[in-house]
Design goal:
This protein is α/β, with parallel strands linked by helices. The protein folds into 2 domains: about 1-175 and about 210-235, NAD(P)-binding Rossmann-like Domain (Rossmann fold, 3-Layer(aba) Sandwich); about 175-205 and about 240-319, UDP-galactose 4-epimerase, domain 1. The chain is about 35% helix and about 20% strand. The strands form 4 sheets. The chain has a 7-stranded parallel β-sheet, sandwiched between helices. Strands 7-10 form a two-stranded parallel sheet. Strands 8-13 form a two-stranded parallel ribbon. The termini are far apart.
Length: about 325
């Protein structure tokens, strides 16, 4: 089977490529390398079962690129939630327009299966956690709205054109190659100043973390076992932590002491407009098809911090 992975040079996408190659699939990666990095795929260079195309999903007809493919795993998107506050058009073009162009190419090329990287941000500010899949879709950021729009477009195409699709609503995914979000942000801040750490928000924001290998396993399992024309799955662990917990874990893993914490909250204690104070997901639906995460939130964060310390060259004790 030949599989297309859009955004395959990015964080989750490159780990998905790794897993699919181990399973024996032939892979075509499509990435514009705006945030994806070739080093994430360097270990596949020279593998005849992996081809890499530098293409932008926003540009032109993609149908030729998809011919002969069995399925598309669609990770291509702009992942920076904060960008949507100041430049909302970026998320409209890179998340909504790109998804529409991909769906049209799938329709023309008769590619019948799609896995969509959605987000817990589609739920906005839920009244309570953990949030099930049947909770209202009420995003509070343009990023969340762009993911909800993608899901709605995909649902329509699944009904109109027979594309079988699954939407994976990821919680915070962590692991090697991560380059955006609170973990690398705090680590790089400590690399510059190991005595003082600025935290966006009041530190009490609640988040659930899932290790990237667990997230990819859940994604492939949902793709293989879902029988509906369209189905959405929450992807996360079964616990959660605060941003203060994350900061303390990073400080501990870096071997620092006496670090002063300062806070930069906006609105109701969040880090930026469009951020949410509390989000964690119910994964009962995913568990019902046989998935169980191997790592909880703290374990996922510890593994990530250790990997990123090497990848980012963070050694604040030497500063």
């Amino acid at each position: 089977m030949s599989i297309i992975v859009t955004g395959g040079a990015g964080f989750i996408g490159s780990h998905a490529v790794d897993a699919l190659v181990r399973m024996g699939f032939s892979i075509k990666v499509i990435d514009n390398f705006s945030s994806g990095r070739m080093e994430n795929l360097s270990h596949h260079l020279g593998n005849p079962r992996v081809t890499i195309s530098r293409l932008d999903l926003k540009d032109g007809d993609l149908s030729r690129e998809l011919r002969g493919a069995t399925a598309v795993l669609h990770f291509a998107a702009n992942p920076e939630v904060r960008v949507s506050t100041t430049n909302p058009d970026i998320h409209f073009r890179e998340n909504v327009v790109a998804t529409f162009n991909l769906l049209e190419a799938m329709r023309i090329s008769d590619v019948g299966e799609l896995v969509f990287a959605s987000s817990s941000s589609v739920y906005g500010e839920p009244p309570e956690i953990p949030v099930p899949e049947n909770a209202p879709i009420r995003p509070v950021s343009v990023y969340g709205a762009s993911k909800a729009s993608g899901e709605n477009l995909i649902h329509a195409y699944s009904k109109l054109y027979g594309i079988r699709a699954v939407a994976m609503r990821y919680a915070n995914v962590a692991g090697p190659r991560l380059r955006h979000g609170v973990v690398p942000d705090l680590m790089l801040k400590l690399a510059k100043n190991p005595r003082q750490l600025e935290i966006l928000g009041d530190g009490t924001q609640v988040r659930s973390y899932i290790y990237v290998e667990d997230a990819v396993e859940a994604t492939i399992l949902a793709w293989q076992r879902s029988k509906s024309s369209f189905e959405a799955f929450n992807v996360g662990s079964e616990d959660w932590v605060t941003v203060n917990d994350i900061a303390r874990l990073i400080i501990k893993e870096l071997g620092l002491t006496g670090v002063g914490l300062t806070y930069k909250p906006v609105m109701h204690g969040v880090g930026w407009p469009g951020d949410v104070k509390k989000i964690a997901l119910s994964i009962d639906k995913l568990k019902s098809i046989g998935f169980k995460p191997r790592h909880n939130s703290v374990e996922s964060l510890e593994l990530t911090i250790r990997a990123l310390r090497s990848e980012l060259g963070v050694n604040p004790q030497a500063s």
